[in-house]
């Protein structure tokens, strides 16, 4: 085994294989973990440096791919080889001591400039853009020029409170609360205060950056987290503004369509949700409830928007079937797209003090919904549905 025999040709073949298989499949196939520090930067994409070198070895004549225990991936070995071959290496600075929940809390409790009286939209716009990229599985990290170009366009179209075309402001702010990672820079990252200083730092250093990896993966993989964070950002920062064009622009306008799985036949396993995911969603909804109560006391908000996350959890919990135990309709019927015909209902109306929370919400077929709303037996049914909602909420098994 000699790493020094590897040339750019073998490395590029390994990169091609990673592109073809996708990062996770590539790493699993060859027995590597994600890079913790060093990323190979090539044509605007980033790769796990040690895994690439190990697989590249297998493209040498008469050789086989190396496994992680065969060699070191540090600066003096795999990374040093890649640099000697002319490849760029980005040093990833992982977020330390913060759980995924910590990071989500930082996103939903942003401190933004309010000098005009209303919150500035720089950070929310940047986060929604990055969330849309995560949802589509696009690369987490981008060169500064690409980030700058994308955010300038969004700020120009959706900066509804006079935001200037300055993407450096939100990225510096998000980096300092550890929501956004930056690397590939020579000088300490500037703070978001001042004007020319911030612009000069990004122009001179041209960092590569993106969402902190745990946050990116959560936004990519957890539907209820995406919905809850969108709820929070929209309600906190876009109160009184039309935010729909922005959600369209960043690819988050149809997030509610993902509440219903795309199926060719109605299979129960399509509706599985783990207890942990259900609990995470409820926790985020409860945090939003607490903030809303505080705002109502201070009279800064009149009526919160209904929670997309709560609706999502109720639909998943229902497994696509009407939750009225006395349903006499056609609970198994579906639409042409094989989606269940269900409506999510607040058993106690919000105007009457009900909660926008799965513990007081049910999924009903249209007939049961009509009975609950205007049927002569509606009061009896409401008592039943309140009990059902609480029971289903409190007895979530590992997978419903």
TrEMBL record:
Single GO MF annotation: endonuclease activity
Origin superkingdom: Bacteria
Keywords: Endonuclease, Hydrolase, Nuclease
CDD domains: HNHc
Residues in HNH nuclease domain copies: 309-370
InterPro entries documented for this protein: DNA-SBD_ScoMcrA, HNH, HNH_nuc, ScoMcrA_N
SMART domains: HNHc (SM00507)
Xref: Gene3D superfamilies: 1.10.30.50
Record carries keyword Membrane: no
Pfam (any one): ScoMcrA_N
Annotated protein name in UniProt: HNH endonuclease signature motif containing protein
């Amino acid at each position: 085994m000699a790493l020094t025999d590897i040339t750019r040709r073998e490395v590029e073949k390994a990169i091609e294989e990673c592109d073809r298989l996708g990062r996770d499949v590539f790493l699993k196939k060859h027995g590597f973990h994600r890079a913790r520090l060093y990323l190979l930067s090539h044509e605007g994409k980033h790769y796990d440096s040690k895994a690439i070198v190990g697989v590249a070895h297998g493209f040498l004549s008469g050789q086989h791919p190396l496994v992680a225990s065969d060699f070191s991936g540090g600066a003096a070995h795999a990374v040093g080889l890649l640099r000697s071959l002319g490849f760029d290496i980005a040093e990833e600075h992982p977020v330390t001591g913060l759980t995924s929940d910590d990071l989500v809390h930082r996103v939903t409790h942003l401190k933004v400039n309010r000098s005009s009286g209303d919150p500035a939209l720089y950070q929310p716009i940047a986060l929604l853009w990055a969330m849309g990229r995560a949802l589509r599985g696009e690369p987490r990290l981008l060169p500064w020029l690409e980030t700058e170009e994308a955010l300038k366009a969004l700020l120009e179209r959706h900066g509804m409170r006079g935001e200037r075309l300055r993407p450096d402001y939100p990225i510096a702010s998000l980096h300092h609360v550890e929501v956004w990672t930056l690397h590939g820079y020579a000088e300490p990252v500037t703070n978001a205060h001042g004007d020319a200083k911030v612009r000069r730092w990004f122009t001179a250093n041209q960092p590569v950056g993106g969402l902190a990896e745990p946050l990116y993966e959560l936004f990519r993989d957890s539907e209820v987290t995406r919905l809850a964070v969108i709820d929070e950002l929209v309600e906190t920062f876009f109160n009184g503004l039309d935010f729909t064009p922005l959600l369209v622009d960043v690819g988050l306008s149809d997030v509610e369509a993902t509440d219903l799985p795309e199926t060719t036949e109605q299979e129960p396993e399509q509706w599985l949700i783990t207890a942990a995911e259900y609990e995470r969603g409820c926790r985020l909804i409860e945090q939003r409830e607490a903030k809303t109560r505080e705002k109502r006391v201070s009279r800064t908000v009149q009526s919160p928007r209904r929670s997309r996350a709560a609706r999502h959890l109720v639909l998943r919990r229902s497994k696509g079937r009407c939750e009225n135990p006395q349903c006499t309709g056609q609970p198994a019927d579906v639409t042409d797209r094989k989606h269940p015909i269900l409506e999510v209902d607040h058993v106690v109306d919000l105007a009457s003090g009900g909660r926008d929370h799965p513990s007081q919400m049910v999924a009903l077929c249209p007939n049961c919904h009509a009975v609950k709303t205007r049927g002569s037996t509606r009061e009896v049914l409401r008592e039943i549905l309140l009990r059902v909602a609480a029971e289903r909420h409190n007895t979530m098994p590992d997978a419903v």
